[in-house]
Amino acid sequence: MPPLSAEPPPPPEGGDSLSLRQLLLIVGRHWRLLGAVWAATVAAAAAYTFSSPRLYRPQAVLEIRPEMPLVASESNDPATMASRMLWENYYRTQESILKSPTLLDAVLKALPDALRRPYEAMEDPLRSFARAVEVEKSRSSFILTVGFVDRDPAKATQIVNTLVQLYLEEVNRQLREMKSGAAEMLSRETLPAIRQSVEDADRALQGFLGENGFIDPQEQYDALVESRRLVVKRITEIRLKQIQIRAGLETLRGYAADGTTGVFNPAFHGTKSLDLLVAQLETLEAEAARQSLELRDDHPLMLELRDQTRRVKERIREAILGTLKSMGSDLAAVEREETSALEEQGRIEKEMADTAQRVARSRRLEAELAAARELYNAYLKKHGETSATSGTRLASVRVVDHATTPLAPWKPNVPVNLALGAVLGVVLGLGAMFVTEQLNDRILSAKEVEAFVRLDVLSVIPRLAGSGGAKPLLLDERSSMPELESFRGLRAELVTRLEAVPGPKVVAVLSSMPSEGKSTVVLNLAKVLAMEGRRVAILDADMRRPSMQPEFGDPDAPGLEAVLEGGLAPEEAIRPSKVEGVDLLGMRKGSSRAAELASSPPFDRVFSALRERYEYVLVDSAPVNHVSEAAVIARRADAALLVVRDRQTGRGAALAAKRRLLGMGVELAGAVLNCAAPGQGGYGYGYGYGYYYGYGEKSASAD
Known about the structure:
The chain is of the alpha/beta class. Among the domains are: 20-52 and 412-439, no CATH class; 217-279 and 315-389; 454-676, Rossmann fold (3-Layer(aba) Sandwich), CATH 3.40.50. 56% of the residues lie in helices and 10% in strands. The chain contains 21 helices and 12 strands. The strands form 2 sheets. An 8-stranded mixed β-sheet has the order 5-12-11-6-10-7-9-8, sandwiched between helices. A 4-stranded antiparallel β-sheet has the order 2-3-1-4. α7 (153-211) runs antiparallel to α10 (300-389), α9 runs antiparallel to α10 (300-389) and α13 (481-497) packs across α14. The longest helix is centred in the middle third of the chain and has 90 residues, at 300-389.
């Protein structure tokens, strides 16, 4: 089925947030309650403000900063650091002094008799006086504000100034006593004890230096470090020499058997005798080679040359063996020298360890002596500063502003109280408004239907004249023009919205609760449709409490129950109604099987038969929220109208009916506001003409 409207779908429902339009409608409903609560709250605030006694609160402003020494010292001075830590709680201390019972009692006694007598007459004078004293602190700026609350501004001002004056005298007295006592304690106990510790530290250092021969242990240690470095260097050189000798010995061990192989070793380059033997050997070998060209090997000359060569080689071998023996002796000497150097290194390292201990002890004694002297000097400075400032006044407290007589009262604060009353009145009024809204959510206008139920209002039906009972009411010649025009407007809206639906149209008229006027809407909508010459039928589908056939049809004719349960054809049960041009298919009496009958196949045949014979079929059904078959029947319709009764139907009930219908797939064309109060015109054709005619004796219409 095509959609009934080209407008965008309404926003999703659910959720507790209110739109601006809904909020404005709620305010419009309950603006009188909001105004009444606001006015009552403002009146109560004004009554309290102007009936409260006028209290004045003069105040004095004190600056209280941490106490700093007058004598400048290094930032890392231990005494200065200790002083800073002691003054961290100074601000809190001064606050406590201002509120101390001793100071307040002194202030009370210092007041003139005229000011003191009212407090002396009280049961607890000091406690009553202390309750009126107020001390406010602003720690970020080291400011204390001292105030006194009383009905007499001049009296309160005098009391504040007296309190500040006695406070300054008290803290100055305490400061003098503290500094005098501190200076005396430093002179009598602290400084002598620190001086004795300095002397003990110096005596211990001198005794240690005397034990060491007054030689600086650090210089001894540095000399031993240098000696060890030289010994390590010599050991390194010895080991390199040892490696060289060992390498030569390893190389020449194979030369002992050959007298000529080792003559080119660098170890023999400095031996002159070996050079002569080598030259002689070379000469003999050259002569033997020359003679071998002319003589045979057994020639006496050749034999002589070979014998001489052999003897020279023997002498060379003996020279090599002597050199190897000399190198072995050198290696033994080097090894002995290495052992001696290692022993010397061990001795030096042992002396270094002993000297290092003496160095550490010397440094510790020197540090103890320096610390004792530094502490003594710091306390000596502190003693001088304390003695110099013991007679001065407190520099860390000063009066920024003395108390002056106030012109305006401190309490009540008229502008602030009235402003708070106005704000509180708005809050309470809104709260009362929303509580009332939760207790009574009845719909009061077409705008509320559109805003809260989110259905287009197709027509606003005024209260119809001529009937005060619960039966459906049909318009006649006594009806006014606005009454008739409201249904004509509904007809125009409905016909326009169903133009896209081909063929006959079936429209279900529903309501969320009983007695909302849906049967009246069905009758009169059918009448105005028939006035255009259309074929119109009414199907009374309220099978539990039928009202159409007994009132507007033939009471003796077979009803819808005969069609659904007796097998009668729908055409045989349709009869003309008392409305001209409108036929009716109703029930003679209610049925307990209404839910089952609504879902039965014969009911489908009823709709098919009605569609074949009529252009418009209006279905009058049971309340949606009370019975289950109403939505089932409405699903067979091309469109549905939800009737909402002005000042009776609740928003929650209308929303519940809408959710059920949409959940069952019913196509909702819009809503009809029935039994509207005067002033809700503008919906429907011609509603602005003659709207207020004939309302004097009209009563509400119902089903």
